[in-house]
Amino acid sequence: MPKVRIGIDMMGGDYAPSEAVKGLALYLNDDTIETLIYCIGSETEMVPLLQSHGIQYDERIEIVHAPEIIGYNEHPTKALREKQKSSIAIGFHLLSTGKIDAFVSAGNTGAMLVGAMYSIKTVDGVLRPTIPTLVPKLNGNTGLLLDVGMNADCKPEHLNQFAILGSQYAESVLDIENPRVGLLNVGEEAEKGNLLCQATYPLLKENKQINFIGNIEGRDLFKDKADVVVCDGFTGNIVLKMAESIYEIAAHRHLEDDEYLHRFHYENYGGTPILGIAKPVIIGHGISNDKAFKNMLIQAMQMAESDFCGKVKTDFA
Amino acid sequence: MPKVRIGIDMMGGDYAPSEAVKGLALYLNDDTIETLIYCIGSETEMVPLLQSHGIQYDERIEIVHAPEIIGYNEHPTKALREKQKSSIAIGFHLLSTGKIDAFVSAGNTGAMLVGAMYSIKTVDGVLRPTIPTLVPKLNGNTGLLLDVGMNADCKPEHLNQFAILGSQYAESVLDIENPRVGLLNVGEEAEKGNLLCQATYPLLKENKQINFIGNIEGRDLFKDKADVVVCDGFTGNIVLKMAESIYEIAAHRHLEDDEYLHRFHYENYGGTPILGIAKPVIIGHGISNDKAFKNMLIQAMQMAESDFCGKVKTDFA
User: Fold this and answer.
1) Within 10 Å of residue B152's Cβ, how many Cβ atoms?
2) CB contact (8 A) between residue A244 and residue B219
3) In chain B, what is the greatest distance between 2 CA atoms, to the nearest angstrom?
4) Which of A73, A181, A265, B4 is packed most tightly, with the most Cβ within 10 A?
């Protein structure tokens, strides 16, 4: 298998480029890693930092100079069009032309979404790309919840597709065999829920591509009842942010060292992949620290090495 | 002020009548309480228990014999019609005829809802009665979230009314002056959200009966940004059950003694009032223990003494 090539936007995130550099150093600490990392950003800013963190210009590193930066408050479409030499624009250019196999950034989220949708494009047959979040289970396992915000209003066929995309991610990236799919709902019985859930349930039940096990209630999210839970992006975003606040609560109560509660810290998950587009793209939190960057790189590597996007193309063929 | 009279279904809940009796004993421990409690249930089962818990037949207790019980699995409408001598049917009869001022039960939830809607009725002008949940804030305060499950699909005018009902409850029962109202949403900006939120935001903003402060994200629910947060009953129910699971997580991690995390234990809130109907009705968890029963009685007392329902009638007049 040829070496996987990952592009990382060194200028994205509130603490760029230093946390990106530190995260890259953590990632490269693992000598068994065989990826080639394209560091995209301002050469004059990156190079001294890379050197000071002991990152060698060896066979695992390429430098790609990007003299421009897209700021947090810039209009995504306008910025991408006007700043062709920004780290995000160059990253998407490298990805769309096949120079790299995955792209990660903690920069302007809107620009990342626009770039993903317009320069990478949706897999044929996918109605709506979606973003998932990982869910820490009390028994130590990890599940997936989607959509968590890309699609505030959904139709039943969207949720049905999220189930396929989430199952593929769980299988390819999380190594979960025949992942159990649940529908986030207000009760266990098939006829429960709002109109969306009532119409989605039969679609999931009839879908032979997934292993549907029924409804999952809010109280069951952290139990290991289902591996993949689907919902509309409005509900999912509320749940995601509530889950993130569990770590904040823990920290406020000085309980953040609890092994389980610590798993709600965003840094453990790195970033959010966009599922349903043709190549791996991972978007990080603006506040990403070194550990978050390291985990984004690992996630990108796993998505590329498992050929997640290729498998999605087959699923929707 | 004449003594408030509260009816309690002694036969409701998984541990009836013993937890109801113990809860009543806890409630009566407070000598300053001046309510008159109507104990509705099987006389032969209740009386020895009341005596063994030292509950005197004094000016604070009345016994109302109810020879029948509506079970958990019974069809609500059918059971209410056929079992006129059940504790729930008698409770609603006493309430609708003005013999008592409030009714609490941890029995068959469906029968409680049907009784509330058909024998007590909705306040004129209220489109949809709603059930709220109390939300423990990190700073020690308590807020309200509604609807949490009675109305899975909502229209903007429903959420606008929930804001009025929730504000009145926060003011009358929780003693919060000029309560701040938030709309549960996926972002802070006015134009954010699903179609429901986008259409609800301007209604809330123009509503002069409430103190609308804008959108509230999932991460802000436990912060003290708003006193009353409104959402559709689907989203609210997912949030409620997730919040309840925070206590379960705490218990699983042996952190349930944490002062804040313990506030997520359902027993602290007693039961759920139905807002928008003409008289105070409180529905308890099937698993209600003594502390939950005590808190349900306190809640009923506060709703009746503050004339919450009378104020709602004025709000919607």
Assistant:
1) 22
2) yes
3) 61
4) A181
Model confidence, pTM: 0.95
- Nearest by CB to B218, from A197, A219, A238: name it: A238
- Which of A139, A215, A219 has the most B C-beta neighbours within 10 Å, making it the best mutation to test the interface with B? A219
C-beta of residue B9 within 8 angstroms of C-beta of residue B87: yes
pLDDT by position in tens, chain A (length 317): 679 999 999 999 999 899 999 999 999 999 898 999 999 999 999 999 999 998 877 789 999 999 999 999 999 999 999 999 999 999 999 999 999 999 999 999 999 999 999 999 999 999 999 999 999 999 999 999 999 999 999 999 999 999 999 999 999 999 999 999 999 999 999 999 999 999 999 999 999 999 999 999 999 999 999 999 999 999 999 999 999 999 999 999 999 999 999 999 988 888 999 999 999 999 999 899 999 999 999 999 999 999 999 999 999 99
Domain A132-264 class in CATH: alpha beta
> CB contact, 8 Å: A234 with chain B?
yes
Asked whether the ipTM of the predicted complex exceeds the cut of 0.90, the reply is: yes
A186/B149 CB distance under 8 A: yes
CA dist., res. A235 & res. A293, Å (int): 27
CB contact under 8 A, B234 and A194: yes
Cβ atoms of residues B147 and B130 within 8 Å = yes
- Distance (Å, rounded) from C-alpha A114 to C-alpha A13? 17
What type of residue is B75? H
Measured between CA atoms, how close is A195 to chain B, in angstroms?
Answer: 7
CATH classification code of B5-126+276-315: 3.40.718.10
Whether B89 contacts chain A with CB within 8 A: no
Question: Tokens 């502390």 correspond to what residue?
Answer: B291
Q: How far apart are CA B270 and CA B81, in angstroms?
A: 27
Per the CB < 8 Å rule, is A138 touching B255? no
Identity of the amino acid at A137:
K
State both tokens at B200. 């609800």
Location of structure tokens 């234990």? B265
A5-126+276-315 against A132-264: fold identical: yes
Domain boundaries, chain B: 5-126+276-315, 132-264
Strands in B77-224 per DSSP E: 102-105, 132-136, 142-146, 180-184, 211-216
- Residue indicated by tokens 């541990």: B15
Subunit contact A194:B244, Cβ cutoff 8 A: no
| Among B172, B160, B169, B167, residue whose Cα is nearest residue B196 | B160
Query: In this complex, is the C-beta atom of A261 within 8 Å of any C-beta atom belonging to chain B?
Result: yes
* Nearest Cβ partner for A242 among B195, B221, B255: B221
Best residue of A235, A239, A246, A259 to probe chain B, by most B CBs closer than 10 Å: A235
